[in-house]
Amino acid sequence: MAGSGGQHYAVGIPSTSNAATDSDNRDVNSERNIEHSFSYHGDTGRGSFDNARRGLGTRSMYITPAPALGSTDNTSAHYSQTPDSIRDRTMLLSNMGLRPGLRNSISSNRAEAVSVIDLDGSRRSSMDDRTSIDQIIAETGTRGGSLSRLLRERSPPLRPLYAPMHGSDLAGATSALPQFDGSYIGPQRVPRNAKHPEVQAEQQQRRWPDDYGSIKQAPGRTNEHHKLHADAKGQYHAGTHLPGEHEQLLLAQAPSCSDYQPSTDADAAAGGHRAHLQRRWHTAVDLIAWPLQYVPAVVLGLILNLLDGLSYGLIAFPVSIPVFDKFGPVGFSMYMLSTAVSQFVLSSGMSAFRGANGSMLIEAIPFLHAMSMTIVNNVGEEQPNRIIATTLASYTISTILTGVVFFLLGSLKIGLLVDFFPRHILVGCIGGVGYFLFQTGIEVTSRLKLELKWSVLHQLFVANTFGLWGSSLFVALLLRALNIRYKHPLFVPVFFMLVPVAFYTTIAALGLPMDHLRANGWVFELPEAGKPFYYFYTLFDLHNIDWHSIKLTIPTMFGLAFFSILHVPINVPALAVSTNADKIDTNRELLTHGITNLLSGLLGTFQNYLVYSNSLLFIRSGGGSNLAGMMLGVATLGIFFSGPTIIGYIPTMVVGALIFHLGLELIREALIDTIGVVNHIEYATIVSIVLSMAILGFNEGIFLGILMACFFFILLYSRRSGMRKAYTGSAVRSTVRRQYAQRRFLDGVCKQIQVMRLQGFMFFGTINGIEAYIRNLLEQRQWQENPIRFLVLDFILVNGMDFSAAEAFIRVRRLLEAREIYMVVCGAERNSEVGRALRAAGVWSSEESEYVQTFASLNDALEWCENVLLQYYYLHQAALAGTDMPQSYTFVTTPHPEEVNIYGSSPRHAMVSEATQSAMTASRSGSSPAVHEPPPALGLLQQAFHDLDSEGSVDATLAFIAPHFKHKQLSLGQYLWHSDTPPLGMYLVESGTLRVYVDDGSGVAEAIESILPGTILGELPLVTNKEHNTAVVADSNVFMWELSKKTFDDLCERKPAQMLAFIQLSLAYSAQGVKAVTAFAFCAQ
Questions:
Q1: For the residues 8-23, what does the mean pLDDT come to?
Q2: Is the dihedral of CA 360, 364, 365, 368 positive or negative?
Q3: Is the dihedral of CA 742, 744, 748, 751 positive or negative?
Q4: CA distance 639 to 649
Q5: Is the pTM of this model over 0.70?
Q6: Nearest residue to 742 via CA among 887, 886, 919, 911
Q7: According to the model, what pLDDT value does residue 833 have?
Q8: φ, ψ for residue 326, nearest 5 deg
Q9: Cα→Cα distances 55→107, 111, 406, Å
Q10: Rounded to whole angstroms, how far apart are CA atoms 875 and 897?
Q11: What does the pLDDT look like over 334-367, one tens digit per residue?
């Protein structure tokens, strides 16, 4: 009956005026309803309609599309009730609130809705055409296509590329030529490898194309090209951009008709040969000049590598131990090789930074010393060769392990996991490294192993020993003092270059021999003669490795690998910000670090990484190129090949001052710069890590830091409340416009609704506070003051939940069920992490218990709670009147009216009884006297404005305005008004429901309010004459009364006094609705 793509509906027209619930409709109305099937063209999918959505005393038709075929979404199975079913209950209660006499008069005056079904299956309504929100969006989407078509129609067709032009076509083409921008190809914009315009003009004269007037031009070719050229060269029309100096130069060099001369093949060959030679000459010059521009940056980078190698390469082995007292040159060679490998890999294009500098990981030295000490203590100092072979093997394995970790993080693209590591723990580790460097500086310069012994302390203050480490510390402190005044990046390298000059100048003035200085430790000893640059490779002995000692160092290896990966997320983003680099991929840099460390480990040397400070100084000095980085790598490799001979001429004061300087810098960053930046708990963690590393060791310090971070994380986060806000239903109500009697009753009992808006991640640290708050609500004293019937838990701001939290909600459910309190869950999607956790814990709506209800939103939950309270209202009314309550209005299990103790002593029953009597008394006191043949809308108006009739003074005003209301009806889905449209009148709803929608800013319409029978809408735009900022759609078949704008304006002119009184009533009525919506919008957030 319908074509493909149509949407099928079933239309039910009930023949009775009584309404039943959904289950009753399936049984009772199946024989009374006349069902028809038809197709609605224009929408895809299929659906069916149920006929349960209608109000008491109405004869209307409700159409509800069912889910499309193949859809697995079953909303009714996800939540306790669907939004539509909640609207049904609300409308039933609203209709029950109408007076019986008023309902009968409405039924007699109402016209019956008629639906017409065409032969082709399409549906036409006798009412106005309606447009759904989807259709509005679809219509808006097609406007872009119309605009595109309009632009295409207004665009002129393109002429073929070589189509000849004649007469006016040529003139038009000439005038349409774009203006020539002479500044674009000025000398300042011409690349270095480009030809000068004069050279190009000369070559063009010798080899001009045939299309521009060569003697080889084909017969019949017109001179239009020449005319066009002459016009562009010598004639300028009004408004044409006049050429600048560079344009005139080009136009002067351009050939004209008289410039065309025949050219011979010999001249062309000679010109081409000269141009070829010129290109080769320029290429040779560029190849020589290009690397020379990076020489200053390379020299600076090489100086930095030498300074770092002399200070940190010499202490890569614990020289205070007799086995390694001669290993300073070995460490220097291994440092240079590791730095060169890192430099080559970073400059090969693997890193996104051009000119990045690599170096040995200086912070690895404490871990290397820890591995060396473990091996010495396990093997014994009586086996030096075995110690050396095992130590070199452990260093190599550690570097390879670090490279594997880097490579896996980068290749699996999980580098962001490193960012989750707490920064204050890293700062504490850096402070521990600073302390270690300070201690190492004393050991290197004094040649003593620091221990807590009186003999060691006594030797530290011997004159010569004190002078060695004291002078180095003085130089470091002097540098720090001067660095306060001089902050240039080159100041520190220049300072350390001047220290040896000052040292040797003083030595020359005093006449001290070099042998005496080396013997007393003021200058490093010369390396043993005859040892090649690859000497450290001869120390590797696979057959002499103590593998048991290697196993003992594995925890330290993992600690070093863990500490190493923390540098990349710090150095890479910092260098990207400093160099204005965009879209830096951390995973790519991790992958690069993995490759360079794997290569370095396979070559038997140390860990390396990208150095932020050296890289920034190198780039800003003109080394921002991969070629410059390669040149620095070659220079560093040259130092490695030349051997460590230079060490024998370096004063220990220089190396000691460098070590002290870095150690003090790291201690300052950890213990001083963090004061006032981190909180007290984090600062205590930093101090504890530094002390534990200094006393216990580096692995112990890192482990202690991780434990403290976990403990303090739980402590700090558990202090943050998992509850954003808590309030009762008196503060926030649903956005449903209800009748006066219902509002009056809800004002008295809404305290029984307790809302808790939860937030964050629910885990064992935060759930205890929430559970304690709920238990406090149920204490006897609190219960007497504010008894609750509904506990609404809003999970809209909750992003996760662990098992402990879910288990706590099980306890809460049992506790509430024992008190007959409904646990209402909202804001949690069924298949979300929170929804799955709640369903697994049994805290979800089911047929087993009605005391757990779930809803999609807080507004739906509040509306359901209010409906249940209204059920108790009508139950008490029936008990007072001695009548039965229709089963249609029973939503939850309640006693029969005859079983209700209206004078019950429980706090909840007492509150309901008091609110019921207050609402009924107010309703009776507001009953208006009988009027002979009253206007049809008068009864509804009196009921709508009932709460505003404080002195019975509004009856005359309403009797005046009621005859001017005219009957109006809407069908399901029809718009009453659209957003940004002028007001056409105000409306009094007789039956049916409407929904108010507002644009959320993204083009999606969001329902914010429900309009029920017995209420008014549209009064504020009509009075203020402002456009609507919302859209109102019929949620069912709606019958209403309309006061048109034309009638309103006419009455304002003829009867200003009466209309002023009515406007005052309308504004007072609007204030009530604005208050409810505002409270929900602000208090519920």
A1: 35
A2: negative
A3: positive
A4: 15
A5: no
A6: 919
A7: 87
A8: -105, 15
A9: 12, 15, 69
A10: 6
A11: 999 999 999 999 999 899 898 899 999 888 888 9
